[in-house]
Amino acid sequence: MANKFKETIKGMLAGDSKKIKIIVAVGLIGIVLIFASDLLAGNEKKAKNDNEGSISYEEYTEELENKLVQLISSIDGVGECQVMVTLENTTESVYATDVEIKNDDSSVNQKDKYVIYDSENGETPVLIKEYLPKVQGVTVVCTGGDNTAVKEKIIESVTSLFNIPTNRVSVSKIKS
After folding, report:
1. Mean pLDDT of the chain, nearest integer
2. What is the DSSP letter of 133?
3. Percent of the chain at pLDDT above 70?
4. Hey, which bits of 30-134 come out as E strands?
């Protein structure tokens, strides 16, 4: 097998120099493409890591309110509407921990340490889960807020969407 490979290489070297140039050029292009794909993949990973940061309380609330305005405005009879959403708490993050338990004759000691990895920004704890805040209450002010049927549709939509009781949803007519 090694002899066949050597003979093939000798034949290529002894032959036309155009063949050698083409082979070398194709090899160089392949190497350049490999390096380029590594660089592009590195940039995509960095962009993903930059976007992985936690969303702020205000951003989350604003996003919920905007989506709710779009949804409620599409209900027949609502008209113009404004929405305010209140949340129970802020985002809760759960990080990986390493538990070390020492048993002595008379006591048991437990030591918890966060699992940390090195990133481009320094040492970072390993995030397992992130719980977004739960909706505590919703207020909707709209043009059709004085119509009982419209009110019921809005309350039913909001309560089923956020799994909250009806007494936590307020619907009123917007000031003319």
Report:
1. 80
2. P
3. 80
4. 81-87, 92-95, 97-103, 108-114, 116-119, 122-125, 127-131
Q: 50 has which bridge partners? A: none
Both tokens of 74, joined, read 């599409």
Sign for the CA dihedral angle at 118, 121, 125, 131 comes to negative
3: tokens are 């002899």
Nearest to 95 by CA among 130, 121, 122, 123: 130
Query: How far apart are the C-alpha atoms of 77 and 149, rounded to whole Å?
Result: 9
- Helix (H/G/I), strand (E/B), else coil: 18: helix
Q: What is the pLDDT of residue 13?
A: 59
The answer to whether residue 9 scores a pLDDT higher than 80 is no
Name the token pair of 80.
């113009």
The closest of 53, 95, 83, 88 to 163, measured between CA atoms, is 88
Element (H, E) at 140: strand 135-142
Q: Name which residue leads in pLDDT, 172 or 97.
A: 172
Q: What is the DSSP letter of 148?
A: H
Predicted local distance difference test score (pLDDT) of residue 69: 94
